[in-house]
Model the fold of this input.
Amino acid sequence: MVRGVFRISKRGSLSGRTVLLLDDVFRSGATLSEAARVLKNQGLAEEVRVAVVAKME
Done:
């Protein structure tokens, strides 16, 4: 479980913008989901999109 592992240390100027999260290997999606949740809940991203290089089966 990764809930609570991400924190925003400085607020940037991403408010109202779309953020792209990049991940090298997608496993369960928990890390990307938590990162996206924090960005959206903190008002740092209007929308979060995800790109991955590989998916574990």
Notes: The chain has a mean pLDDT of 85. Strands lie at 18-26, 47-55. Helices lie at 30-41. Residues 18-55 form one domain.
